[in-house]
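Please, structure for the following, as tokens.
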Amino acid sequence: MTLKELLNESVNKFNEKVAKDARLQRELDGIKKKVLIDLGTEKYNFSLEEKRILPVNDGEIADPDIIVSSDPETLEGVLSGKIKPMKAWALRKIRIKGSLEDIMHLQKLF
């Protein structure tokens, strides 16, 4: 499975979770965010709007609210469950730029 497919799989799981969780729906009410994933050699982006994440696209996005920087191997490990997200962050294998509130919303994706 490609990294983009793993990202879209995570997006689908997140959207399914939101559809079943009224509390999470209330948390996401009115939130619109753009996310850039920068892996050095690869870049992906997606948007959160209307309480769901749209499919992952290749390339950069203008004015992202959140920037996730890592390498392909680490992100694949996080998405596949081989590496815990907080461990990757603590080891500086993943860096996240954005407001604390935005980062907390992003955490729900993983």
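The chain has a mean pLDDT of 90. Residues 3-20 form the longest helix (18 residues).
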